[in-house]
Specification:
Shape of chain A: elongated
Strand order of the largest sheet of chain C: 6-7-8-3-9-10-12-11
Oligomer: heterotrimer
Helix content of chain C: 25-40%
Radius of gyration of chain C: 21 Å
Shape of chain C: globular
Structural class of chain C: alpha/beta
Structural class of chain A: mainly alpha
Chains: A mainly alpha (343), B alpha/beta (322), C alpha/beta (338)
Number of strands of chain C: 12
Radius of gyration of chain A: 27 Å
Largest sheet of chain C: 8 strands, mixed
Number of helices of chain A: 11
């Protein structure tokens, strides 16, 4: 209240005397107001490779969500000799339906992308695999990598001290111990238990959790470094002198300024997570049949690769495209957010 | 007497996504043997780019250097090949930069760095080169030079490092020393030391100096002639005494008035130059200073004044000098 | 004993040491950045704090604002010892003491608009409604000579001088009584420095501000300050009104500092006798015993290096009316002049 009273007297001052040396309107000519975010967005949209990659990823995800319900309505009702007498497309166009009479078939109007050694529909399995990959990516990167990484990175960078020391030792430990080996160990030990309690979902959670545990320290390191740099900026000190609390400084100044770094690092981590999920499934430690995942599909077909290379190549190609696309998007975002690439 | 260096109509542009930045815009200047020429200007005036263009040290692209010629002892620097350029740089013309922290290589001893340059340009043997290095360190006032020669740059303070830089720059007896803000990063008492040192040594070796600075005080104390740059152009060129006694260009006048001086009367109000220097991407049509000039007329906004002699030895690019 | 009621700020025997860690948590020594500084400031005055890099002038400013841990000493602000307050209490006092920063580029968050920058202190102290805040922001922008229409632009669209004005507007948002300006013009171009200096002078008159003006440039400090304190290696060596300091410096360091500053006048430069100090600044981790300046002191040298300079630290004492100097031989200068 004291402040407002004083400012009234200041207003009077203002009316009495004209403003000092008004700057000429050199900025008035500018039309488009450019903001840091808008500049980054403009740079990203000029990166063709990243844009194409982003489009492909979006299309793949949309397809994996929209196509299955449609696909399950298309096709004749099959009469089969074994098991089911009649099978509707809503049955045989699913990832798990085993059709002994259509084993190892190539693409046809009945099975658009063919079938595997059990006669399961490859298209459905690939689409389900894409969903699994994305789900793992979101869980690993979205929750653990970003969540834990940012939380501990900022705390360690801003406060230093014991958190910083513990983080440093922990990351050293993780770096010294191959992440994938750790994941193999954990999924190997707890895999059965997870399957028993929650089926394939339990397995997915376990895989995501272990993968996440191995990637977040790297993220925390990036964030810590960036926070340390930001802390040296005078606007942080200015915020303190204007009465902001540490929490306010972190929320208002540190987080917005590390956001771009986090987004870039997270995007690049997605491709890592997708690959590692694939590898775990390939080793039989991820999603279990009759569930589907791209890695599992490679695992299932690899023994017949000489005879039916197509069945391995299809999930491998989808996996490769996904990973490449995320890498390109990450690169594009890094360039877009890096002020040095400005001109 | 022929000039040591003569720059004719030098123009340096940077091609950026936003457009062409005209950093140096048709600069003409010369230096005679043994004289000290000051180039003053604010940041963005093109003073450093002029120096870098003379030695062709700018990466092309994005820079592009055009110009009639940069004559160094009847040799056009613009026409030299890489090998000839290397022989010129550090040999006949050497350079000191602003930041003494980054211009030395941290992984070599200072002795090695001096000796390297000496061996390269003066064809001396290893032993003679080392002797020369010790001799130079001694000359720039580094105590117990014979021992310090084995020290690494980080073992020196900022002022001492700048001394080492001067030792390297002068070790090959250059005819021209280009010093780009050599004392800006230093404290005033150290600045005084370094300026004294440069004055003494360049006098002793009869080296011409191109002293680039933003500090009018440094210019007043250390140069014989001055060139004032603004927005990529030379706006005034005169002997140092003339320039300070009777500045001709309105920018020079305004700049001198705006600087707080140690010997100002008490309570004197500064007279700032209003506004900002022009954007080098969009230089105005007329005189670059017109928008901030108290004396500007319609003519100033329409055409660029040429650098003309306003009194013997003093040139100004102004329609309404003094 | 102390007239804290009259003084807005009173600093008593302020010490700020930075520990030098040696690997495993043990302390190897300390950098004595500020080593026993005493001064006071009256309301409405400008005290210039000058010195070369490493002399502790910025550290002093930051210690007063409690931006770094104070090793010992008392800082009375409006009669209240800041060192005895809790963090939360200090935050409350921040409305009354503000800072103008050196670097106009790093002192504004690049992701904030001008209006958001100035709004930050207002929000912290619950200034009032959104509308009142917008009015206040416009008012502040006009006060520092900026067009309020630019409020929604980002810092990168402005020049260094304009950014510095924005920083000043932010520091004035809460109507502080003390403003600590840390090298506010040293990052600006010469032609723009004068604009900002004049602005600060005008604002001081208008708002009866008290400025602690920290700078290395004595010409600038002389211009804006009514009193000047010169620091060397963590201590004040001389303090007086700016006129006396320039007319008759008592401390040999001040003398050398003054003579080292180039004056833009070639005729004068030719005539001036320059005292060029020998050697470098000693390390503040291990300052010379006795008078910190004795290793480079031309006066001590001229007097045959008296014992007392090497053994006893001179006190900052009043040598003539309101002219304090910390030199065993301060009269030497006076005699030479007379």
């Amino acid at each position: 209240m004291d402040i407002e009273k004083k400012s009234e007297s200041m207003l009077e001052h203002e009316i009495l005397s004209s403003p000092l040396e008004m700057e000429p309107d050199i900025l008035a000519a500018e039309q488009n107001v450019s903001t840091p975010l808008r500049d980054s967005f403009r740079r990203f949209t000029q990166d063709k490779r990243a844009l194409v990659s982003l489009t492909i990823v979006i299309l793949m995800v949309l397809t994996s969500l929209i196509l299955p319900p449609i696909y399950q309505r298309i096709g004749p009702v099959l009469s089969l000799r074994h098991g089911f007498l009649h099978a509707a497309p809503s049955q045989y166009h699913t990832p798990w339906f085993i059709n002994n009479e259509y084993v190892d078939k190539g693409p046809s109007s009945l099975y658009w992308l063919g079938t595997n050694y059990l006669g399961q529909d490859l298209l459905s399995r690939v689409l389900a695999g894409i969903q699994v990959s994305m789900l793992v990516a979101v869980m690993v990167v979205g929750l653990l990598d970003v969540g834990l990484g940012v939380l501990f990175g900022v705390l360690a960078g801003y406060y230093g001290g014991i958190i910083d020391t513990v983080l440093a030792r922990f990351t050293d430990l993780i770096f010294a111990f191959p992440g994938l080996l750790f994941a193999v160990l954990i999924t190997g030990i707890f895999g059965q238990k997870a399957i028993q309690t929650a089926g394939n979902n339990g397995m997915l959670i376990l895989v995501s959790f272990t993968l996440g545990l191995t990637v977040w320290p790297q993220m925390a390191r990036y964030v810590r470094g960036q926070t340390l740099q930001l802390k040296e900026q005078q606007f942080i000190e200015a915020a303190r002198t204007t009465g902001s609390t540490s929490l306010q400084i972190i929320i208002r100044h540190i987080l917005p300024n590390i956001a771009s770094l986090v987004v870039v690092a997270a995007t690049l981590d997605i491709s890592g997570a997708v690959i590692n999920e694939g590898v775990l499934s390939l080793l039989g430690l991820g999603v279990q049949p009759p569930g589907s995942s791209l890695g599992l599909m490679i695992n299932e077909s690899i023994s017949n690769i000489a005879q039916y290379p197509y069945e391995t190549l299809l999930p491998a190609a989808v996996l490769a495209v996904l990973v490449l696309c995320f890498s390109f998007i990450g690169d594009g975002m890094r360039d877009a957010f890096d002020p040095r690439t400005k001109d | 007497m022929p000039h040591l260096l003569e720059v004719a109509n030098l123009t340096t542009e940077f091609h950026t996504r936003a457009g062409i930045v005209k950093a140096v815009n048709g600069v003409n200047l010369f230096i005679d043997p043994g004289e000290t020429l000051g180039i003053v200007g604010e940041s963005g005036s093109g003073k450093s780019v002029t120096a870098l263009s003379i030695l062709r040290l700018l990466p092309t692209p994005p820079a592009s250097i055009t110009g009639n010629q940069i004559l160094y002892q009847n040799q056009d620097i613009l026409k030299l090949n890489e090998k000839q350029l290397r022989a010129l740089r550090g040999g006949k013309i050497s350079m000191i930069f602003q930041d003494p922290m980054t211009s030395l290589n941290p992984v070599y001893t200072v002795g090695f760095q001096i000796a390297e340059s000496v061996r390269l340009h003066m064809n001396l043997g290893r032993k003679e080169a080392i002797d020369r290095a010790i001799d130079m360190l001694d000359k720039v006032g580094i105590p117990s030079a014979a021992k310090r020669i084995n020290s690494y740059p980080h073992e020196f303070s900022g002022g001492m490092r700048q001394r080492v830089m001067i030792a390297i720059a002068l070790s090959c007896n250059p005819e021209l020393l280009i010093a780009d803000e050599p004392t800006t990063a230093l404290d005033v008492t150290i600045q005084a030391q370094i300026l004294e040192l440069m004055k003494g040594l360049t006098h002793e070796f009869h080296t011409a100096v191109m002293l680039i600075t933003h500090d009018m005080g440094v210019v007043a104390g250390s140069t014989q002639r001055v060139v004032v740059m603004y927005a990529g152009s030379i706006v005034e060129s005169a002997t140092t005494t003339q320039l300070f006694a009777m500045p001709a260009h309105q920018y020079t006048k305004a700049l001198l008035r705006s600087i707080p001086r140690l010997d100002d009367e008490d309570g004197k109000r500064l007279e700032p130059i209003t506004g900002q220097p022009p954007d080098l991407l969009h230089l105005p049509k007329g005189c670059p200073f017109a928008a901030r000039c108290p004396k500007a007329q319609q003519q100033c906004k329409e055409s660029v004044p040429a650098l003309t002699e306003v009194q013997p030895g003093q040139f100004a690019a102004c329609f309404y000098p003094f | 004993m102390n007239n804290t009621s009259e003084n807005l700020l009173e600093v008593q025997d302020l010490k700020v040491y930075f520990p030098i860690a040696s690997g495993i948590g043990t302390q190897r020594g300390a950098i004595k950045a500020v080593d026993g500084v005493n001064f006071s400031m009256k309301k409405g005055e400008t005290l210039g704090l000058v010195g070369e890099s490493g002399c502790g002038k910025s550290t002093t400013g930051r210690a007063i604002l409690q931006l770094l841990p104070v090793t010992s000493g008392k800082i009375f602000f409006q009669g209240e010892n800041l060192n005895s307050l809790s963090l939360n209490q200090i935050r409350q006092r921040r409305a009354n003491m503000q800072m103008i920063f050196q670097d106009p580029f790093s002192s504004l968050d690049p992701r904030y608009t001008i209006s958001q920058v100035i709004a930050e202190p207002l929000k912290n102290f619950r200034f009032g409604s959104q509308k009142a805040m917008q009015n206040r922001i416009s008012e502040l922008l006009e006060l520092v000579g900026m067009n309020p229409a630019y409020a929604n632009r980002f810092p990168h669209e402005f020049s260094g001088g304009q950014r510095q004005r924005i920083g000043i507007a932010r520091s004035l948002a809460l109507n502080p009584s003390l403003v600590i300006a840390d090298e506010p013009v040293s990052a600006l171009d010469v032609s723009v420095q004068a604009q900002v200096l004049n602005l600060m002078e005008d604002l001081q008159k208008k708002l009866s501000l008290t400025f602690l003006f920290i700078a290395h440039n004595l010409s600038v400090v002389r211009h804006i300050s009514s009193r000047v304190a010169v620091m060397y290696l963590g201590r004040i060596v001389e303090m007086t009104d700016s006129k006396s300091l320039y007319a008759m410096p008592l401390h040999p360091y001040t003398e050398a500092l003054l003579s080292a500053i180039p004056i833009p006048d070639p005729v004068l430069e030719l005539k001036r006798e320059r005292i060029v100090l020998k050697g470098d600044l000693p390390s503040p981790a291990n300052p010379p015993a006795g008078c910190h300046f004795h290793t480079r002191c031309p006066r001590a040298a001229a007097m045959g290096n008296p014992e007392i300079c090497r053994t006893e630290a001179p006190q900052l004492l009043e040598k003539s009316s309101n002219h304090l100097a910390a030199c065993h031989f301060a009269d030497y200068a006076a005699k030479k002049e007379g």
